[in-house]
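Escalated from tier 1: adenosine-5'-[phenylalaninyl-phosphate] holo job.
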Amino acid sequence: MTYSETLEKEILKKISVAENQDSLEKIRIAELGKKGKISLLMKDLSKLSPEDRKEQGSKLNILKKNISEAISLKKIELANIELEKQLLEEKIDVTLPVQVNQSKYGKIHPVSQVLDEISEIFGSLGYKISEGPDIETEHYNFNALNIPESHPARQMHDTFYLNNDNTKEKYVLRTHTSPVQVRTMEKGKPPFKFISPGRTYRCDSDQTHTPMFHQIEGLVVDEKTHLGHLKWTLETFFKSFFELDNIEIQLRPSYFPFTEPSLEVDVLCDRSGPVLKIGEGSDWLEVAGAGMVHPKVLRSSNIDPSKYQGFAFGLGVDRLAQLKYGIPDLRTFFNGDIRWLSHYGFSFLDLPTLSRGLKK
Ligand code: FA5
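Tier 2 regenerated the structure:
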């Protein structure tokens, strides 16, 4: 037997009517397998004259390619049909009442809970939410924030640089959420009042540092906002977040190239025992950086600094979770240990609201 159009049509017909992956596989073996029809035809080529062998050989190669392609396409088609069928069978009725005993199987990670708590507090103070990318350009992560290439502050950030071999613009994993300040101001017009939650990355690891952590940036820009507003905002936030009237925080003069003046915020805690205690002891844990937005940052966001001014802050979310819920080591947050999560995690019914309280 040699190649014929009828043979090709016959095989393609069989493929097109295959009902499932198993019958498709049987067709593949019968036609293309080692002992399959096409392989036998290939073997028979040696019996032909050189001219016929050349002609038949090339036709059989094309046949083989057409059959393989048809089988691959049919495979995808069958997989899609099977998935569709499975999805229809696995319908979930989201209107059914929650089975409370199910809640023990899934827990909300403390970082997610604390991100919601912080958003709830700033939401109640009239802040909107604005987000930016995790993979950031050097321009937004540094230059637009008044940190040019030669600036010593770049070393403070322990940056993860991406493979920038063939790119004009250099990319980094953002080291802080401050680039969202510029991205958001560039797109809009003052006044601004927003927070930007998100992941941030630095090559750093110990009890209070992890290579990936979360920050929430806050920015308020208008014609009148001053340092007193920043102090009030931070104090109001920390009182509400820790649900304590006498929370002791310390504002230290500091330096950030993108704020002037700059300050750092520490919370009083006790780190001597196995459980981290807030409002006790004699240790301070740094939880935020803040300051008045530098005129150069306003200018790089096309805002006139002679008319507008404002403050910015960056909160370390994981450290706030650590402090509020007494979790001694930050690295355990990201170990993916289910026993840790069932101990420190939250029930999905524990929605943070200001009226009901934010705590567990
Ligand atoms: C900044 O990242 C500034 N962008 C904050 C800022 C925003 C200042 C706006 C002024 C105006 P800093 O490097 O201090 O600042 O980080 C802020 C907070 O992130 C720290 O207080 C700390 O709580 C947290 N943090 C920093 N590095 C780590 C880390 N490796 N692991 C966990 N938390 C970290």
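DSSP finds twelve helices and ten strands in the chain.
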